[in-house]
Amino acid sequence: ETGVTQSPTHLIKTRGQQVTLRCSSQSGHNTVSWYQQALGQGPQFIFQYYREEENGRGNFPPRFSGLQFPNYSSELNVNALELDDSALYLCASSSQGAYNEQFFGPGTRLTVL
Amino acid sequence: AQSVTQLGSHVSVSEGALVLLRCNYSSSVPPYLFWYVQYPNQGLQLLLKYTSAATLVKGINGFEAEFKKSETSFHLTKPSAHMSDAAEYFCAVSANFGNEKLTFGTGTRLTIIP
Q1: Across the interface, which of A92, A101, A106 has its CB nearest the CB of B42?
Q2: Can you list the residues of chain B whose pLDDT is less than 50?
Q3: What is the pLDDT of residue B5?
Q4: Rounded-to-integer distance, Cα A77 and Cα A46, Å
Q5: Do B103 and A45 touch (CB under 8 A)?
Q6: What distance in Å separates residue B105's CA from the closest CA in chain A?
Q7: pLDDT value at position B27?
Q8: A13/A22 Cα distance (integer angstroms)
Q9: A90 vs B: CB within 8 A
Q10: CA gap A9, A63 in Å, rounded
Q11: CB contact under 8 A, B43 and A4
Q12: How high is the pLDDT of residue B109?
């Protein structure tokens, strides 16, 4: 069984640029959640996708957007990057239903200069 | 709305000593509570979860946590610390187990003294 994978591992961008982060969910999972973890902080929920539709969103501006594909993999897009967007971005996959835990990927480290 | 507070951003214990990491929660509904561990440059791994089935929850790697409603606490313990326990630990809360968003605390970095 393949776990949750994320790409790229590290990324460096400059202010104002756009970035796309990718996540492949664990086999059999149909839900992907994205979290932002700033240095020294706990992860913060960005949004969740279920069957290609956004299914809940945290307190993040619209320049954070996402997609989920028919194979349940997902992308996180961030436009007009700001210095404060520098963080570890984690995705977690799960199956809808009771008592189904979220499995986290290793994360993508984004640095905005 | 749910939230968790982790008391102590850094905790140091000697190898073989008791590990106690503190977490207090605030929730308007019966909460689901979690402890996650994060090793350097890695994602989060679930240690244990409380889903109202039992107040004392046993997890992986010898960790356990007790849900105390009267104290709104869910502290994480391990009787004897091992060097491999050195990591960052996060308490999290959710209104539903599984797919509702997780709200995390700010984390506690555990250092093990040889």
Answers
A1: A106
A2: none
A3: 96
A4: 11
A5: yes
A6: 6
A7: 81
A8: 16
A9: yes
A10: 22
A11: yes
A12: 97
